[in-house]
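Worked Example 4.2. Consider the chain below.
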Amino acid sequence: MKFLGTGAGEGTPDPFCTCPVCENARRVGGREVRTRSSFMLSDTMLIDIGADYFAQAVMQGVSFADLEHILITHTHDDHLNYTFLWERLVRRAGAEQTLHVYFTGEAYDYINDFYLSAKGVGSEKFLQGVELVRLEHGMTYDIGGWKVTPLRGRHGTAFEKNTANFLMEKGGESLYYALDSGYFLDETFDALAGRRIGTFIMECTNAIIENGAAKQITTFPGGHMDLALCLMTLDRLYESGGITADSRIYLTHISPNRTTHAELCEFLAALDKPYRITAAYDGLEI
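Applying the procedure from the previous section yields the following structure tokens:
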């Protein structure tokens, strides 16, 4: 499994920004640079295909030719590049495998209408070899060998009230992918209690550290996480058995708000918690 991108909506460095974090990313490069968030489970399965998917494929030597399943958390353009189906069409129209793209609840209604009304492209041609699939929050589906359950996130768009955060289980493994979530809903905490999740991936959009402590800047409960809310969430999950000391916890969807990757890593390494947290970076394989 691989983090193709770990940035928030603007990426790091933001092309229009000269803040210290963005200037540091330009100067240092490497792990300080973040493209928009995307996570590759395997050659055949992906979560989110956002604004930077072309650059991610080139920079990381990744091919999407064998993709069969793409789970979409929500329709904001840093998570869904609306043009990717056209770009697949021009080279993969004759592909034997069907590409299944999954949207949850109202997101499916919006995206289906959008693609069927795309200017200049007949719907049958545009969706050749593609199946748009509707999921519902709280229901469990067999997708790509995983049991996948979309749970509601506290984040919405103009077209959907709640994002889909994905609880995934396969052969004794468990993974939770929570972008963009905000502080978890009570129903989500209840669904995760006692699950002892093995790999836990969560957004930390505003990873702000001030005077050696995580600073809460988000109006509780927020539509995005800051570092303080991440720790509040993880503490509650640890108490309920949702995560354990052995859980592999990763922060992603990180914006260039006042904290560099190196500073975040230093803070997390010194954190006195019963669980360990890793700041993900583009290209990290787990």
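The longest helix spans residues 227-240. Residues 199 and 248 are 5 Å apart (CA to CA). Compare this with Example 4.1 before moving on.
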